[in-house]
Each structure stands twice: as C-alpha cells, then as structure tokens.
C-alpha cells in the first residue's frame, strides 16, 4: 500500500512538473509571439518611413527641377521684356508725349 501511495505521489509530482513545463512553454511562446509581432511591426514601420523618405527626396528633386524651369522661363521673359523696352523706349515715350500734348488717344 505504501508503494502504491508513493507511486501516486510520484505520478502527481510528475504530472505537476509536466503541467508546469507546459504552462511555462505556453508563456514563453506567448512572449515570443509578442516579441515577433513587435519586431514585424517595427520592421514594417522602418520600411514605411524609408519609403516616405525616398518619395520625399524624389518629390523635392522634382519640385527643384520645376522651380529651376520656372526661374529659367522667368529670366527669358524678363530678358525679352527688357530688350523690347530698350528697343522701343524712345518711341513709346515720344508717342505718349505726343498723345498728351496733342490730346490724341493712345
């Protein structure tokens, strides 16, 4: 009878040990899953931020090119207007003076 009680107690201890191990493995697995989930999220966030930075650089380059094109176009128009002013200043002044002094419409 003593042997049987000893065996039952040993079996109970073994069952408790196995149960504790199983609970520990479950807790470890849950912790590992949470760590993996955090790692995947962090990696995804890093990739997204890198992608946004890449897009920002491309867009800034495009905007810079557009601004240079606008500046070039403005410089061309300004130069052309200055040429017209230089070429026609005297005539325009004479026409305005004549219209004012003679009372003619422009």
Short recap of the structure:
The protein is built from 1 helix and no strands. With 106 residues, the protein is an all-alpha fold.
Report on the structure:
By secondary structure, the protein is mainly alpha-helical. It has one helix at about 1-100. The mean pLDDT is about 95.
Distance between the termini: 132 Å
Order of helices and strands: H
Q: How many beta strands in the DSSP annotation?
A: 0
- Rg of Cα set: 44 Å
List the uncertain runs: none
What structural category do the secondary elements indicate? mainly alpha
Strand percent estimate: under 5%
Keywords for this structure?
1 helix; 0% strand; mainly alpha; 106 residues
Topology of this protein?
Elements: H1 2-102
């Amino acid at each position: 009878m003593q042997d049987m009680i000893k065996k039952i107690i040993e079996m109970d201890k073994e069952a408790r040990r196995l149960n504790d191990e199983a609970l520990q493995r479950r807790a470890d697995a849950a912790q590992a899953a949470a760590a993996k989930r955090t790692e995947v999220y962090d990696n995804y966030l890093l990739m997204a931020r890198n992608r946004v930075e890449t897009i920002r650089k491309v867009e800034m380059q495009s905007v810079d090119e557009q601004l240079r094109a606008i500046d070039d176009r403005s410089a061309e128009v300004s130069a052309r207007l200055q040429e017209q002013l230089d070429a026609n200043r005297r005539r325009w002044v004479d026409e305005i003076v004549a219209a004012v002094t003679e009372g003619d419409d422009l």
